[in-house]
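Hi C.,

You asked whether I'd gotten around to modeling the 136-residue construct. I have! Everything is below, sequence then structure, no commentary in between.
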Amino acid sequence: MTRVTGTRNNRLAPIPFRLTHFASGSMACGMSDTLSRLEATIALRSGADPASSYVAKLNAKGLPKITQKLGEEAVETVIAALSGDHAELVGEAADLLFHLIVLLQAKGVPLGEVLAELDRREGVSGIAEKAARNAD
């Protein structure tokens, strides 16, 4: 399992993923594998000693702190996107995904459910999908 650790500035250790080239020239990456490994690591660390685990520390502070951190990371991602700095955006996006998975885990929502929802929406116009939700 790939280790994911926070540092002083809350950056994460890199998590490698595989790129696969298809005959069409498109690429599919092992994102689901990477995110699944991250989810498993977060689940393992959620019950650890808060003095030794950032995930455990967040969980010990409860849902308000977890959601606050997710919001902060979302804002930092937007700022990085607007600044035009590619590396900064990549780092902030990784932080955002990490904190989203911490939140999902805290709420008992498996990442697989979110991925299944994305699969369900694949190929459906965003406008049509939103209209269907609003019709309910």
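If it helps when you're writing up: The helical segments are 31-46, 54-61, 63-83, 86-106, 111-121, 126-135.

Thanks,
B.
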